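Standup notes, structure subgroup. Blocker cleared on the adenosine monophosphate input:
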Amino acid sequence: MRVVLLGPPGAGKGTQAQLLAKELGVPQVSTGDIFRANVGEGTELGNLAKSYMDAGNLVPDEVTVAMIRDRLGAPDAAHGYLLDGFPRTVAQAQALDDFLAEMGHPLDGVLEIQVPDEAIVDRLSARRAPDGSVRDDDRPDVVRHRLTVYAQETAPVVDFYQPRQLVHPIDGVGEVNEITRRALDALATLPRD
Ligand code: AMP
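Run returned:
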């Protein structure tokens, strides 16, 4: 099963991706996690990505697409994956389509986790550690910018997939397990190849 998970920052996307990937038995492929691992290891890719991430901007498409092609070509992704945080732009969505066409596999579905802006602010405050420290890009000013980037760059990705009726909106407000259940129910309705 090849599934894309979309949702604004703070929608609980990472948490749901982890739970869903486990349920589905496919790897969770998170571009944010891969970038953060590279930043942590001080790789060339990490050094390049860091300035974009710290500012709440997207890493350039060509860098991100090259990285994801590499990851999706790995043996553990041969039978499916849950994409968490990719595609974030229409150009990335187009590149993913090209890759899927090369591989001869269609995308099975797109889950769009929907959360109102006010709930996002609450959640990102809750993501703060007890000592008050935050993930660098969870600072309030950066979060506001990431929400703007989401609206401008990533929301159009939903429209990109809409004509193929691939998009399943998921109400992202509620208990974690309840949201996972909604997502699994939506996935259960997808035709399988
Ligand atoms: P995330 O953990 O998904 O919120 O991603 C954290 C940051 O990594 C984002 O704010 C971007 O700077 C970068 N990033 C993650 N995924 C992508 C992507 N598909 N395209 C460009 N930048 C990305």
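Discussed briefly. Helices lie at 13-24, 31-41, 44-54, 61-72, 90-103, 117-126, 140-161, 176-188.
Next: hand off to the docking folks.
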